[in-house]
Predict the 3D structure of the following.
Amino acid sequence: MNIVGVRDTVVPIRSRIRNAYIDFQTMTVSVVAVLTDVIRDGRPVVGFGFNSNGRYDAQGLLRNRFIPRLLRAAREEPAALLDPSGTNLDPREIWAILMRNEKPGGHGERSVAVGVLDMALWDATAKIAGVPLWRLLADRFNSGAADSQVFVYAAGGYYDPDKGMAGLRDEMRSYLDRGYSVVKMKIGGADLDEDLRRIETVVDGVLNGEADRLAVDANGRFDLRSALAYADALAPLGVRWYEEPGDPLDFRLHSVLSERYRGSLATGENLFSHLDARNLIRHGGMRGDRDVLQFDPALSYGLTEYLRTLDMLDMHGWSRRRCIPHGGHQFALNIAAGLGLGGNESYPDVFEPFNGFADHIPVESSLVKLPDEPGLALETKSELYRTVLQPLAEF
């Protein structure tokens, strides 16, 4: 048993939409296929991975450091890639190989490159075992307990030059029509008065006044003064959560804000290691009874590092149900089901073809079931598989 090749490509997910910080006109994604010599159902097992939106492709890092490191180990020490039984890959041991000769800290885009490969390796491992990834994770790390369905919310409400208030209202209503009961929209890309009008349009025009079904996301835009001004305006509304008000590493901002804003805060999607996550818990004023942690395994060194983050949270008394990963991908969905998280983000309309989940499983009351196919079941996302994954695997 061995890894016999790794292929990678870059796929654009360009769009005219923007959040408070960036637009997506040049956004790209790295995609990898890890090829093995294991045969299942008459075909070699291939593991697929890709990074989440908001971080550009990591092709340079993949090709210059991490893919060569993996293939060198496959040639020179193939047994080091395997679990103790010798019958499957060991993604955690392979992660250590990928990180050889890497200094601590300075995570940046390195965490994206490793996360892409780690996703593919867990996909391959579950396929070799012949089980869905959520089942593999439940059996290995959660005493066999897995959630039969996962809470998901529809993330959208981006600033769009072609969409006014009516378009925003129609977009959010379309999410409810597709089975979502909780939605999220962007703030911070306009002035406070306009953002409040946008929020009112959604709450009163779509959600029948139920503001707790709407989360708002500033994408790290605010300094402390602006973050507090928005907090004061949002507090009477009772929104679901106030997301990433300031820079993700400005733990003092979060701590001061948490003392004044009694509603739920959410952050973490731009923290890329369990140590950064620990600093947030220690110094960011996050409250375990109401706040939401959005660490994205596809961006933060993969599931292997995410397991360390969950261990850290356990040590600090945090429930895993407070974790709702960013990214809207089937990797995090499997992790949420298998490890008992609180849910997962979803992108019904943007970042195609990487958005959404299995074609054949609908969202009902903001809950989605998991596919039964082995691995991540990315093959059940027909457009993604047909246009990106299958051509990459068969190149």
